[in-house]
Structures are given as structure tokens and as C-alpha cells.
């Protein structure tokens, strides 16, 4: 069996690739020699930053909520290793007596409910933050003392929607929170007077504008998949209704539903009263009743230019018998 031959001039095997030395050694300022046995080691977690590329896997956790002042990060858990019969039971009892801890837990739970409910009806985070600010003010100043947390949360979401110019009706908030309309109305009146919502929005900004039926039209038209020009026509129709005193005293929801019913037929994109009733949350008979009032004043309410150009045709409107 032959033995392997070696050559003196053969190139040396390449050394395996090594990463950069991340160890930091402390240097003596006098002699400039490394201080023995003192070394700091840095891993990849210390050298990655969230601003470089995407999320940082070594630093996790949601951003702090400024409304909670760090309360969501403070929590105490007491062990029951002694079976709950000794010191642990006393500590649990002492912690339970802390009024401040209960208040903090209640505030965190209320904020969680507000975020969850806003997500259910696709409201943006900005509206949830306004509702949280209102709730925190009401809680700190004991404005709605005696009212349930659910009622206060419902009222704050209702007001926050109005402030953000995306109002929701009492009926929608009632369905979302299971709080009676009367209770939400009572809370709203108290908050309106206490926080002076007629002068400011409760957060230092401008006062909330009392929105009419036109504020609801955009959402309803979007759900019904109608073109933009039908929405514009419905808004003009609502304005003309107000100027001529047609359907005065009717609820904004019923006026908005009837305006869409009128405009969709007038411009050749008809929707049934049943379809509109499902979206608006009112009965078909209510929509048809308000539409009847509009139909009798149709000559005053329609746009003359669109009638002359043929975009709008009055004969398309469903006939209503007197």
C-alpha cells in the first residue's frame, strides 16, 4: 500500500472564514495595553436596529401608550408556593386593597374595550385615541360617577366619531356596545356640559360640528356600490330639502336613506328601498314615507342643469299616489 506523498512547495490550505471580532477590550490609558480578564462581548442583538431593515427580532413589544403613563407595563404577580396559607395570602389581600391598582386596571381594561370596539366597526386608531382621552378625563374628574363602564365607553366612542367628522348613529353604537340608547344619551348630555363640548372638543381642538344627513351619505353610498355622482346628487338633495323645509323633523338616517333612494332612481342607478334599509338600519316604510314628501316637491329639489342635459330624468322616479 503506497503512502501519500507530501510536497514542500504545496500551497497552504485556506483558513476558514471568520466573522469580525466583536469583542471589546478595555485599554489601559497609561500603558495602552489591554487590561487582563476584562472583556465585554456583544451579540447580534446589540448591533441590530429596528430602523435598518424591518422589525427588530431582538427587541419586541408594542409601543408605550402615552395615555396610560406606563401603567400597562406595571404588573404584580404573587406566587402561591406556600399553598396560599401564609405570606402570599397576606400579600394578595394587601394588593387587592390598593385603590390605585384597581383604578389602573380598570383604565387599562376600558382602553382595551375601546380599541376592540373601534376595530369591530373599522374605525381608525385616531378615533380610538380621542375616545380614550375622553374616557380618561371622565374617569379622573368622576364626571359619570355611577354609570357603568360600558355606557361611558359607548358615549366616548359616539362623541369621538362626531369629533372626527365620521359620525355614527345612536343605533349603530347601541348595536356595537349593547347599551340602551337612552343611557348613551344621558351620558352624552353630562359629558357635553362638563367638558364644554360646545366650545371645544374636550382635547383642546375645535368644537364638534353637529352633522346632518349628508355626513352619513358617503358611507351608505359606498356600501351600496353607487357611483360618486349619485352621492353628490344625494348631498344636493339633502341641502335643497333643508332650504325648502321638506321632511323637517325627520331623523337624519331616514332623510339620508330617502335621498339615496330618490337620487339613485333619478340618475338611472336604482336601488330598492329594502337594500337601502339594510344599509341605513331603518325600515322600508320609513324611507318610502320620507321619499313621498320629496317626490311631491321634486320640481324644486332636482338640478335643472342635469334635467336639461338628460343626466337626470324625473320620469325614472317611482310614482307615489297622493
Please characterize this protein's 3D structure:
Strands 1-2 form a two-stranded antiparallel sheet. It is mostly helical and 322 residues long. Helix content is 51%, strand content 3%. Strand 1 (24-27) and strand 2 form a beta hairpin. The termini are far apart. It has 14 helices and 2 strands.
Characteristic terms for this protein:
322 residues, mainly alpha, single chain, 2 strands, two-stranded antiparallel sheet
How would you summarize the topology of this molecule?
Blueprint: E1 24-27, E2 34-40, H1 44-47, H2 87-97, H3 99-120, H4 125-140, H5 149-163, H6 170-177, H7 181-194, H8 214-223, H9 228-244, H10 252-266, H11 273-280, H12 284-296, H13 298-301, H14 304-309
Antiparallel strand pairs: 1-2
Helix pairs in contact: 3-4, 3-5, 4-5, 5-6, 5-7, 8-9, 8-10, 9-10, 10-11, 10-12, 11-12
Amino acid at each position: 500500500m503506497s503512502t501519500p506523498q507530501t510536497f514542500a512547495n504545496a500551497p497552504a490550505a485556506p483558513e476558514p472564514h471568520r466573522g469580525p471580532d466583536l469583542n471589546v477590550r478595555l485599554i489601559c490609558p497609561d500603558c495602552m495595553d489591554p487590561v487582563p480578564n476584562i472583556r465585554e462581548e456583544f451579540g447580534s442583538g446589540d448591533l441590530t436596529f429596528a430602523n435598518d431593515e424591518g422589525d427588530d427580532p431582538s427587541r419586541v413589544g408594542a409601543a408605550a401608550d402615552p395615555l396610560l403613563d406606563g401603567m400597562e407595563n406595571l404588573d404584580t404577580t404573587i406566587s402561591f408556593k406556600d399553598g396560599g396559607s401564609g405570606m402570599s395570602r397576606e400579600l394578595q389581600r394587601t394588593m387587592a386593597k390598593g385603590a390605585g391598582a384597581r383604578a389602573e386596571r380598570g383604565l387599562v381594561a376600558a382602553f382595551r374595550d375601546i380599541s376592540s370596539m373601534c376595530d369591530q366597526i373599522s374605525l381608525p386608531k385616531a378615533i380610538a385615541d380621542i375616545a380614550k382621552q375622553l374616557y380618561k378625563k371622565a374617569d379622573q374628574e368622576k364626571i359619570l360617577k355611577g354609570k357603568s363602564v360600558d355606557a361611558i365607553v359607548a358615549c366616548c366612542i359616539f362623541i369621538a366619531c362626531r369629533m372626527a367628522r365620521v359620525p355614527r348613529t345612536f343605533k349603530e353604537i347601541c348595536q356595537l356596545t349593547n347599551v340602551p340608547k337612552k343611557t348613551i344619551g344621558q351620558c352624552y348630555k353630562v359629558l357635553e356640559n362638563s367638558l364644554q363640548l360646545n366650545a371645544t372638543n374636550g382635547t383642546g381642538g375645535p368644537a364638534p360640528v353637529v352633522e346632518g344627513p349628508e355626513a352619513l351619505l358617503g358611507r351608505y353610498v359606498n356600501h351600496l356600490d353607487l357611483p360618486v355622482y349619485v352621492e353628490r346628487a344625494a348631498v344636493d338633495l339633502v341641502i335643497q330639502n333643508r332650504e325648502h323645509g321638506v321632511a323637517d323633523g325627520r331623523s337624519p338616517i331616514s332623510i339620508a336613506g330617502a335621498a339615496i333612494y330618490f337620487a339613485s332612481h333619478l340618475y338611472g342607478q336604482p336601488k330598492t328601498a329594502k337594500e337601502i334599509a339594510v344599509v341605513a338600519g331603518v325600515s322600508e316604510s320609513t324611507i318610502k314615507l320620507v321619499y313621498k314628501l320629496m317626490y311631491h316637491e321634486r320640481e324644486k329639489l332636482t338640478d335643472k342643469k342635469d334635467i336639461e342635459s338628460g343626466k337626470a330624468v324625473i320620469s325614472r322616479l317611482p310614482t307615489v299616489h297622493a
